[in-house]
Amino acid sequence: MEADNDTGISQFLLLGLSEEPELQPIIFGLFLCMYLITVLGNLLIILAVSSDSHLHTPMYFFLASLSFADICFTSTTIPKMLWNIQTQSQVITYAGCLTQMYFFLVFGAWDDVLLTVMAYDRFVAICHPLHYTVIMNPRLCGLLVLVSWVISVLNSLLQSLMVLRLSFRTKVEIPHFFCELNQVVGQACSDTFLNDMVMYFVIVLLGVAPLAGILYSYSKIVFSVCRISSAQSKYKAFSTCASHLSVVSLFFCTSLGVYLSSAAPQSSHSSAVASVMYTVVTPMLNPFIYSLRNRDIKRALKRITGVPVMYGAIVLRLKRCP
């Protein structure tokens, strides 16, 4: 097909995780369950934090913000994927692809920055406990969330505008289940050098730098905790941070792996599977990681009528899964 500019593009084709017809019902059912669990679990976190005055603290404010970001993050990709499987169509319009990519980048970057903010919050709470309430005041907490949102929007706007300058064929096949930035740029007919440079710069700025900051924060936390004489206090401190570290490890390792390896030749299927880990699995696991290891959240959920039964049923089903 002839290369054309963006005004001549009719449609993109999302090839999905597999083109095998017999696997489509399995993929549909699996991703539908994961999406519903993600939305319900994160909504319960938001409801628990907002309804319990004891949880109106910086840590839980950031956790509720992360839950909201996770719901939006997953909702930018999974519903369209499920719709395509249900209708047996792989089509997404050029405008639809750019819109999906824009919001995916917004909420993905917001997730990224919020995880960094939560690491800073734990650093202040454990390393400077006497000054915690003064440093992490409501004004600063609101400002941190607002700034993280602005950074995410500006990054997404820049990346999307950079894609608009590219030329594509009239029909583009994307070997993925959504319009991920590196996959879309890789399908362009025009020179993508500037796009690649901007993308790698953003990876360092919003990926490598936050991860380095998080690791530094937790190195200081470990050093401070080791000086605590009480074994119970040590356990409480490490338990509080362990859940955050598990989310950070899964999110950053898979997302950085996908984008840093985009320049190297690799299987499109392996890239799509890795993307599932940080776009679907991490947002789904967040409510379970934070609530099952957190007495305050579990206590708040028990105060909500009907929620313990529903949430307990979800946990029980997950435990039964092989």
UniProtKB/TrEMBL annotation:
The gene is LOC112818138. InterPro entries: GPCR_Rhodpsn (IPR000276), GPCR_Rhodpsn_7TM (IPR017452), Olfact_rcpt (IPR000725). Signal peptide: none annotated. This is Olfactory receptor 7A17-like. The chain crosses the membrane at residues 26-49, 61-82, 102-120, 140-158, 197-216, 237-260, 272-292. The keyword Glycoprotein does not apply. It is found in: Membrane. The keyword Membrane applies. It comes from Callorhinus ursinus (Northern fur seal).
